[in-house]
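Ops channel
N.P.: pipeline sanity check, posting one input/output pair.
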């Protein structure tokens, strides 16, 4: 089964994930966990890295839309 999402829906979902990550990252309990000497990930990735990656993906989608719009006059 293929899920069909519009570009706008994809952007909204990704931005919602960013918002959720920001909420989690700002919670006192999460900050306590992350500052523990026992907290580690396999490649030293932290929650803020995931937030930043999602931001980059959203920016890439925006850039593609702008380029396509300029070239064809078409909006996704």
């Amino acid at each position: 089964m293929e899920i069909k999402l519009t570009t706008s829906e994809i952007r909204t979902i990704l931005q919602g994930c960013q918002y959720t990550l920001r909420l989690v990252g700002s919670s006192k309990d999460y900050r306590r966990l992350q500052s523990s000497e026992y907290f580690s990930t396999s490649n030293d990735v932290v929650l803020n890295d995931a937030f930043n990656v999602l931001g980059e993906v959203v920016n890439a989608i925006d850039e593609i839309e702008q380029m396509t719009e300029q070239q064809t006059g078409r909006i996704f």
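N.P.: looks fine end to end. The CA atoms of residues 25 and 34 lie 9 Å apart.
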